[in-house]
Hints:
Elements: E1 4-5, H1 6-13, H2 17-25, E2 33-34, E3 40-42, H3 44-58, H4 63-105
Amino acid sequence: MKALTVKQLAAISEVTVRTLHHYDEIGLLKSAYLGVNGYRYYERAEMLQLQRILFHRDLGAGLGEVALLQRHRERPEAERTRFSRLIDTIDRTIDRGPERRGHDEQR
């Protein structure tokens, strides 16, 4: 999926450009990157984050509550990423194991 400009994201999510700018200013939804043209660009992760924000807003949560919910989600997400890397490292080590054992047995 290609990145969307703030105008494109506003149109498909039915919020205003100003709302997205405000979310960026308060740190609720940062763009993925700024283009050389100075435009904010949003990728899949930011679009999913916006969906979560809008979901909580629809349930009546204020922006402060939404920000708090996001912070509570960030730590477990970081832990999941860390554990995933650890599992990948273990798997790579195990995959190389037989080669090492064969080498060690020849000694």
